[in-house]
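Chapter summary example.
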Amino acid sequence: MPKRSDRADVLLVSEVGSADESLPLAEETPLIIGVLGEFTGRALGEADAPETLADLKPIEIDRDNFDAVMERLGVRFEATLDGGAGAGGEGWKAQLFMRGIESFHPDEILKQIEPLRALLELRRALDDPAKFNAAAAQVRKWIKPSDAATTIPRPEGTSSLLEAIIEETDPSPATPAPKRPLADLDRFVREIVRPHLIQIDLGQQKQLTAAVESLLGEQLRAVLHHKDFQRLEAAWRALHFLVTNAETGTELKIYLLDVSKSALENDLAKAEGIEASMFFKNLFSFSSECGSPWGAFIANYDFGINDVELLDRIARIAQRVGAPFVAAAHPLFLGAESFTEIPSAKTLVRLFEGEPYSAWRAFRKSPQARSAALLLPRFLLRLPYGAESDPVRSFAFEEGVSGRDHEKYLWGNAAFAFAVILAREFTERGWSLDPARLAGRLEGMLLHVYEEAGIKQTKPCAEVLLPDGLTGALNSQGFMLLVSHRDRDFVMIPSARSVADPPALLAGHWSSSPKKQ
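The structure predicted for these 517 residues follows.
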């Protein structure tokens, strides 16, 4: 870690005070960043009960133990997916256990979802002259042209067609998949595989291979673009972005707090005052045990106009402990379904002058507003998979995402970009950092280059290009901005402002620390 420049003594919120009632501490006090979010992939509603906060334990995470933390938390994805073109019925079930950041990659996904794994084994068998006849014979049994019924004949001595494929193409797989209910596998064949292959000349290897790859690609996209999978992948890749770009150690620590936004809202609504909430008690208990204050909270949440009361309560806690709360703004806050549809500057100003925004205007004038920030838009977390960007080894897969497929890109919460700048500045200057310097620039961000109608196009690092007039309007309404520039691989935060009105820089322990001259 680079040696910091000259530092003054830092200040810490007292046990009974606020951010303005501080006591001096030794300069080696670490910056502790708490990252809030729903990271386990629990079923909807499972993470919402206030009781889930009673046992909330911050988990230290860095680049060395990242995968181990994922495995410890039991991160998983479960969903019933649509069968795709030509499929009917109830769809098919997918279950994935995430044992590390690479578990989100298609090559790892294919190893865990048995129907896709079986099709991949079939596709490999079609490339092997010694196995082609057996593989083609299995496919012929699926789609006999004369078979008017939808039932699938089973090979003698085998309980499932897909098991037969695996047995005949790879009798001793290195990593056997867990057993699935036979009904699910057979339904997958009937409803999904058969419609894709019924027009294929089964005697042609190239056609058959292309058909299986097409089917594999379609079903893999169904997983990658499922809203719950995207939400889970975005949470972990954003956290990975922070962890790998922060110089963690004795002077800077990152702790994961696995708590959903709804669980936090329920807890704060139920408590008689913020100090009675389980969330506050957990924060206070942790600081008491480790002997260091919280330095900042980065939340993988987005807030809309209906979340102002919740944001106000969280901001009161942030002010109380002296650590700012930084999250994202939802496009609905701006009256839009997507950040690609943000209204004009004039329309935006009129919108925020309306009655539905009265609570927002009042909150912005409160003292605690200086301890909260909302960022927009999002930033690109990974490029679409494909030969020219991020190749898949298992088969020739193209994710096929371009400019018009905006929500199929994997976008990350902009609060994590701010957190990287905060970590960088703290590493350089410690608690004597100037909050004005938390406005900064991040280089080497992902920029997707693609062709549309034969013309080269780029998808901005931070989702959309914001005109100057619009950035001014958004800033005046209390938002911190993540700004992209056309065809450039960097993003900027022009001002590290809080949501406060009149405008104020984001408050934290650094606000009362002497600054380096």
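To summarize the output: The chain has two domains: 10-62+248-378+413-509, 76-227.
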